[in-house]
Amino acid sequence: MTHTIQAWPRPLPQIDRDHAEWWAGLARHELLVQECPRCKALTFPPEPACPACRSLERGWRRSSGRGRVFSWVVVRRASHPYFADKVPYAVVLVAMDEGFRVVGSFEGPLDALCDGLPVEVGFDDVNDEVTLMRFRRVG
Ligand SMILES: [Zn+2]
Fold it and tell me: Cα(29)–Cα(79) distance, rounded to whole angstroms?
């Protein structure tokens, strides 16, 4: 009996209580950022307390979904069999217009990647619970 690499299920995140609201936003195709109701600091990834003022109040702001590539890596060796036929691919660190940074996959030709490339978020609905984000070049 032979197994193909397609037999491997996609590895998916564990959604815990601190991040549930953020994942629910992605499921609605909204990129949320934690915004402290007290001092307005933006925190990503979400945390139980505001790192700036330690407030336990949590609020959220919907991001424009637009930003610029701050850095990236090109993955050439799959870290899991699911990704074996997907390499090479890029993971980008994006400086969002609101001032926080977020990590996501990059959709598009790898040779288009450059410092400051304008990008916008897109959404992949994987199942009822999990939506993943990816970034694509604007224009
Ligand atoms: Zn705060």
Answer: 27
Alpha helices, DSSP H, located in the chain = 20-27
Each residue's pLDDT, cut to its tens digit, for the chain (139 residues) gives 555 555 788 889 899 988 999 999 999 999 999 999 999 999 999 999 999 999 999 999 999 999 999 999 999 999 899 999 999 999 999 999 999 999 999 999 999 999 999 999 999 999 988 999 999 999 7
Separation of CA 134 and ligand 1 centre (Å): 28
How much distance in Å is there from the Cα of 35 to the middle of ligand 1?
8
- CA 130–ligand 1 middle distance (angstroms): 28
pTM of the model: 0.88
Contact 63, 32 (CB under 8 A): yes
Sketch the domain layout of the chain as residue ranges: 17-137
CA 58 / ligand 1 centre spacing (Å): 9
CA of 49 to the centre of ligand 1 (A): 8
The amino acid sitting at 20 is: A
